[in-house]
Specification:
The complex is a heterodimer of chains A (152) and B (82). Chain A has a four-stranded mixed beta sheet with strand order 1-6-8-2, with helices on both faces. In chain A, strands 7-5-9-10 form a four-stranded antiparallel beta sheet, with no helix packed on it. In chain A, strands 3-4 form a two-stranded antiparallel ribbon. By secondary structure, chain A is an alpha+beta fold. Chain A has a single domain, classed as Molybdopterin biosynthesis MoaE subunit (Aldehyde Oxidoreductase, domain 3), CATH 3.90.1170. Chain A has three helices and ten strands, in the order E-H-E-E-E-E-H-E-E-E-H-E-E. In chain A, a hairpin with a 2-residue loop joins strand 9 and strand 10. Chain B has a single domain, classed as Beta-grasp domain (Ubiquitin-like (UB roll)), CATH 3.10.20. Helices cover 21% and strands 30% of the residues of chain B. Chain B contains two helices and five strands. The longest helix of chain B is centred in the middle third of the chain and has 11 residues. The chains are: A alpha+beta (152), B alpha+beta (82). At the A-B interface, strand 5, helix 2, helix 3 and strand 9 of A face loops of B.
Amino acid sequence: MDYPTIVSITEKVIDIDALIAQVTLSSTGAAAMFIGLVRESTMRGKAHLTEYLEYEAYQPMAEAKMRQIADEIRQKWPSVEGIAIVQRIGRLYPQTPTVLIVCTAAHRDTGVFEAARYGIDRLKDIVPIWKKEIGPEGEFWIEGHPIPKPGE
Amino acid sequence: MNKVRIYLFATLRDFTGVKTLELEIPAGMTIAGLKVQLVKSFPKLAPVKESMMAAINREYAMDAEIVPQEAEIAFFPPVSGG
């Protein structure tokens, strides 16, 4: 059985309904999804406002790393059916979805929630994407995540 | 000699104003050696040299790795997608 895997770096609006349809099979009864959005008002840490974020990616490597993450998910949670991992890039304003991870399975108690959580955590660690924050106090690059280990 | 294509991203591109360049480097040069050469060409990269990450042909590369012939190299800061 060939399960659908969709990975994409895009400048277009993330079409959530279309992506769910693409990872839904006749045997699918559950989809767990994470969506990251641009937050206008940050309270955690140093409170501040965001006008917009400017995203960029090393596209061919980013899509290869997303495919790697999908493979890792399938190894850890063999009951996962479809996987979609999409990152939107370019200038994105508050309340806009920027990243989507969706994993589908026959039932909800198959690890599908954990699989989606793993997907977003791994994306933030190893996929070469960067964002610059623009706000009332100027613009600054958002500090990156821990450096991948050899072989990642 | 080895002709490599180098891509710079995020802060590195901002600091240098350069997205991509081609360099002739000695055969057998490591990523660490290439970082040194890059900082020599672009002194503005000195403050970010320690946190600079590298990829060879779209896979993460450690400092000790030797740059293969005609490789696609990328340098960038720690990633911050999502």
